[in-house]
């Protein structure tokens, strides 16, 4: 999603299959302060932000910051997820959100 400099709030909807949240990651231009929340209204939600606090893990990659949040594998129904981006500061650029829901991987 392309964003302008400064503060903004955007909401979009994503359909995801039943399963567990396998990945929630936000990729932002360096200097961006943002939170992204995905939720099935009234059921469950997950969030990831650019703050470097547990359970977020952030790292620099060139001019970008990549933040991933570990998620507990809790069963989720197939649903339409509401995704809200709250950008509190930062430059213009592209913000990407990777959000994967599916069956848990088999363990050996």
Write up what this structure looks like:
By secondary structure, this protein is mainly β. The protein has a single domain, classed as Jelly Rolls, CATH 2.60.120. It has strands at 2-3, 8-16, 20-29, 33-40, 44-49, 56-61, 64-69, 79-89, 93-94, 96-102. The model has no long low-confidence stretch (mean pLDDT 92).
Q: Top keywords for this entry?
A:
single chain; 108 residues; mainly beta; Jelly Rolls; four-stranded antiparallel sheet; 10 strands
The assigned structural class equals mainly beta
CATH architecture call: Sandwich
Radius of gyration: 14 Å
The best one-word shape is globular
* Helical coverage, percent range: under 10%
Characterize the quaternary organization of these chains. Answer: single chain
Output the CATH topology.
Answer: Jelly Rolls
Question: How far is it from the N-terminal to the C-terminal residue, by CA?
Answer: 38 Å
* Mean of pLDDT: 92
Number of domains: 1
- Unreliable runs, pLDDT <50, ≥5 residues? none
Give, in order, the helices and strands: EEEEEEEEEE
Q: How much β-strand is present in the residues? A: over 45%
Question: How would a crystallographer describe the biggest sheet?
Answer: 4 strands, antiparallel
The tally of strands reads 10
Strand order of the largest sheet: 2-8-4-5
In the CATH hierarchy, what is the class? Mainly Beta
Total count of helical runs of at least 4 residues: 0
Quick overview:
The chain has strands at residues 2-3, 8-16, 20-29, 33-40, 44-49, 56-61, 64-69, 79-89, 93-94, 96-102. With 108 residues, it is mainly beta.
